[in-house]
Write a structure and sequence with these properties.
Largest sheet: none
Oligomer: single chain
Distance between the termini: 55 Å
Order of helices and strands: HHH
Shape: flat
Number of helices: 3
Strand content: under 5%
Helix content: over 70%
Number of strands: 0
């Protein structure tokens, strides 16, 4: 039986949608992309990968703020 990881599928969809040219997007198309990205974020957030991404971004922002002082 084949299983599909929904977060991975949404990540591929977002990648393909963002590769398109900006001029050819309608307002509905932009709203659909934003909605898809939000759903992807909700799916990734509670996982171990989401927590790892959050930890990485926290360390990155912390180091950047220290470098700016």
């Amino acid at each position: 039986m084949l299983t599909i990881n929904v977060a991975l599928l949404l990540a591929v969809i977002v990648f393909l949608r963002l590769r398109r040219r900006t001029e050819s997007r309608s307002r509905f198309d932009e709203k659909l992309t934003v909605f898809t990205v939000l759903v992807l974020g909700v799916l990734i957030a509670p996982t171990a990968a989401g927590k790892g991404i959050l930890d990485f971004l926290t360390q990155l922002v912390s180091s950047l703020s220290k470098a700016g002082q």
